[in-house]
Design goal:
heterotetramer, A: 3-stranded antiparallel β-sheet, 5 helices, globular, B: alpha/beta, Aspartate Aminotransferase, domain 1, Aspartate Aminotransferase, domain 2, 2 domains, 4-stranded antiparallel β-sheet, binds pyridoxal-5'-phosphate
């Protein structure tokens, strides 16, 4: 099987910022149990910066690792910067992801976007994140992957 | 890795040292091409025929020529599906395969559906079995071929092949079974089962990878799939793999000789495993648990609120080699087609684990596995955004 | 058999001990399934990728992913012919194969001709070569695939692949070459040759039987032939044969490392052989003798007034392992399609001998062969009802 | 490869009655160099019995062995018995032949028939052997073989 990078394995084995902020300012929950990946991000915001961030994820190794790294990347960022983190940046920060797992990084960025917009909307402000793909039931996270996926049925 | 607890024997097995010994002469001095006329070639030919006779004897074939050696279970399945459907130049007709076949059967069936044939995927019931009456209902006037696997590679249920073959034959169709997971592990006799063709794989029974066989009942028309020099009596071309044949025949002999002792040993280990897992973990179940006709070495669990790959990776870190039930490792979107076919809800199918035991599995391995699994599941559930809800829903009934 | 003089290296080769050493770990402790996620599986995966990279480097492929491992030359040929012709769902078109291809190419071509494709068999000239201008003349608007072998397995002539591939490409067709006999024996670079696909066989280069590879240029559309679990990046299903891959890669590395010294050694032995046979026997000739571009290790003789199998059996009794040029051992009615294709008269084509040399051939072997052949031929000619007439006709001019 | 029996190999390696009877009473030459098998049988006849018999054969191992054994079988036989030898008897006498080689025994029985008829016709008598298949250019000696022939192209 195609391998996870050492950094993916590190974030999977020792995920950073796991949990739920009790009195969170914003909460994002994305993904779908039918698809096997569900992620929840809670944030504390101070001066439009992400002051604290935690996650919970049900999903594969890549889903957990991308969740973990995105919390590290976002911590201390302005809300605008946080919603601009791309799935490509997440994958790069992890030293790459197998093609078949690229969609997991969408989940991570979407979770962050959802939490930021939740914070803004709760405060009566305009959401800034744009559409959150992975919560759309018609979204196919595999559509932009390389076609060389891995084998089935062992 | 210092100590590996290998619990994925259904994926592949190590080559038994006795099998390797049987192969070595053909990787060394007995290197002739089995189709050459001179002494070295005749020696290779005899070795192939000797292996063929031993395999034929083991599966109850009437003629050694009914055994065709191939490059593996996949090739045997491709050959059977396409070769039997298109045998004698046929270019249309109805083909039935079960919905929880291995992809080595499903994909050729799909190929047939794009090349003039009508294909029906017949679903198993939640008990993990294909029922004869369901097959009867699916049969058509023009059904030419039915393929139902003998033992399922994910959940281990054994299908009522004799009854199914009788239904197929009553309707004038040929019957093929993929026996990659059952050969050597349960009694296997082509006449008792009444099959026209059966697929086998060497690396599931402590033989080498890249080798297998196809049983084809004498007189059955089949278009060869691998075309060329006309080896294997024109039914499978390609220079014959003598080391593979010698290894496969030896592997099967060992399975046969040891089965009477090995089956109860594996069954006891599996029961200990099932008890351990279900006893220690809440919201966990064994797939197709109600079915008695099952392989002794496979147990497939649904562990709610966790995802299979994550379990697998944590167990790997502890030296345990195991498979998710999920057939596709290509990402979590597609859970196992086998579990979906038996009606497992999609959100739980992602949380399956297939544990498969074998010749070198010990009680200590099972206990170590159970001890290791419990904290892994607890940890993953504790970081799941859904587990609390699942548990609450369960407790609410 | 005390001492065997093996002169049939083009049929198959013994496994080199260094190759066997490279295979052994995968027949023992490194037994994982290359598609499993845990450590043992990742180890197997890495071994496959390592082998793939080494093969890719040897043949000048730009990406390791262009190398697909298969069960042998026959499977590679079947996959290339049918997979390339039907790639992207195509169901008709024109395919050109040379008339002296191996049956592993000719038979799939015939299959195509029965399934919607037009197939042209392009003849070689008496020099044993396919000429670019002949290919040009055979090309059509709708030609989709051209397959011409690199080195012929019976007469050893090497085709002008670069020129032929250019003609195919100019006409918009894909180009495949069967390089089972040339890989490792002459320089082989997919870019210099300009091929889109190429077939290789492991057991021709001191690797194990039942293993091979297909080079497929990136971006080339090909329908997979072996369907199932989707291994080899979905292009060749079936549990991967790690021992085979490690052995094949090692075998190729040894061929590459030793070629500079081995080619002149074999060439000198072959020249000694040709001189010996032609010098000692009358009414004997070397097929395609006028052609310089040839494999160093194959010589194919016509010995008039004798039948090949009879020579072979007498030589076998002396411990010499050799092949008749006649490709089909199925009886004497059908002489070699290769010899007929280059214009050898049918009555003489029955009297051909293919001698093929290899890594362990010595001068003593060659001399012993020549010394043994002479009395065999004399004896058979003396009991032939035709030889006197043939000789008289020859002497009359 | 399918094997020749020990008896075939014995007759191939040490063929009996090789040669040409100089003052033969009857000569049969059958087969075709195009097909690769040509056989010539010469006989001496005494009192309508085969008194001496020799053969020459160009052909494969089975062609030579069947030629050899048929001369042994026919020696001393009446002409009528000699032309009644069937290809099956020849094959049986040799301990069997591989299916792909069964046609060779036709050659042997045909050669014998041709020699007997040649003797009879030369003496103005009626031929007794019936049609000689293997000299007919349209004859396919493989037509009654099992279809499982052996492999090509090594
Ligand atoms: C039921 C079943 N059929 C077919 C196969 C394919 O066999 P192989 O891996 O030898 O190609 C397997 C194993 O992968 C299997 O479990
Ligand atoms: C030119 C050529 N192509 C293809 C093959 C078939 O390869 P394999 O025996 O590995 O199936 C051979 C050898 O038999 C060959 O010589």
């Amino acid at each position: 099987m195609q391998l996870y990078s050492d950094k993916v394995m590190d974030h999977f084995s020792n995920p950073r910022n796991v949990g739920v902020i009790e009195d969170a300012d914003g909460t994002g929950e994305v993904g779908n149990p039918i698809c096997g990946d569900v992620m929840k991000i809670t944030i504390k915001v101070d001066d439009d910066k992400i002051d604290d961030i935690m996650f919970q994820t049900l999903g594969c190794g890549a889903a957990i690792a991308t969740s973990s790294i995105v919390t590290e990347m976002a911590r201390g960022m302005s809300l605008g910067d946080a919603v601009s983190i791309t799935k490509k940046q997440v994958a790069e920060e992890l030293g790459g992801l197998p093609p078949a797992k690229m969609h997991c990084s969408v989940l991570a960025t979407d979770g962050l976007k959802a939490a930021v917009d939740d914070y803004l909307v709760k405060r009566g402000r305009e959401p800034i994140a744009g559409p959150i793909l992975s919560s759309d039931p018609n979204f196919d996270p595999h559509e932009d992957e390389e076609s060389e996926s891995e084998a089935c049925d062992l | 890795m210092d100590h590996i607890v290998y619990l994925d024997y259904a994926a592949t097995t190590p080559v038994d040292e006795r099998v390797l010994d049987a192969m070595m002469p053909f990787l060394r001095e007995r290197y002739g091409n089995a189709n050459s006329l001179y002494a070295l070639g005749r020696d290779a030919y005899k070795a192939m025929e000797d292996a063929r006779e031993r395999v034929a004897a083991s599966i109850g074939a009437s003629h050694p020529g009914e055994v065709i050696f191939t490059s593996g279970g996949t090739e045997s399945d491709n050959t059977a599906l396409i070769g039997l459907a298109t045998g004698g130049g046929r270019s249309s007709g109805h083909v039935i395969v079960s919905a929880f076949e291995h992809h080595a059967v499903l994909e050729p069936a799909e190929w047939l559906s794009k090349h003039g044939f009508d294909v029906t995927e017949l679903g198993p019931r939640p008990d993990g079995l294909i029922h004869a009456e369901d097959l009867k209902a699916a049969m058509r006037e023009d059904t030419v071929l039915v393929s139902v696997m003998h033992g399922n590679n994910e959940i281990g249920t054994i299908q009522p092949i004799r009854e199914l073959a009788d239904v197929a034959h009553a309707g004038g169709a040929l019957f093929h079974t993929d026996a990659a997971q059952t050969l050597g592990k349960v009694d296997f006799d082509v006449d008792e089962l009444g099959v026209d063709a059966a697929s086998f794989s060497s690396h599931k029974i402590y033989g080498p990878k890249g080798f297998g066989a196809l049983y084809l009942r004498k007189g059955t028309r089949m278009a060869p799939y691998m075309m060329g020099g006309g080896q294997e009596s024109r039914r499978r071309s390609g220079t014959q793999n003598t080391a593979g044949a010698a290894g496969f025949a030896k592997a099967l002999e060992i399975m046969d000789a040891e089965r009477a002792a090995e089956t109860p040993r594996l069954t006891a280990l599996r029961d200990r495993l099932v008890e351990g897992v279900l006893g220690r973990l809440e919201l966990t179940s064994l797939n197709a648990a109600e079915t008695d006709t099952r392989l002794p070495h496979i147990a497939n669990f649904i562990i709610k609120g966790v995802e299979g790959e994550a379990m697998l990776l944590h167990l790997d870190a502890k030296g345990i080699a195991i498979s998710t039930g999920s057939a596709c490792s290509s990402g979590s979107l597609k859970p196992s087609h086998v579990l979906l076919a038996i009606g497992c809800p999609q959100e739980f199918a992602h949380g399956s684990l297939r544990v498969s035991l074998g010749r070198y599995t010990t009680e200590e391995d099972i206990d170590f596995f159970v001890e290791s699994l419990v904290p892994v599941v607890e940890r993953l559930r504790s970081m799941s955004p859904l587990y609390a809800k699942i548990k609450a829903a369960h407790e609410a009934g």
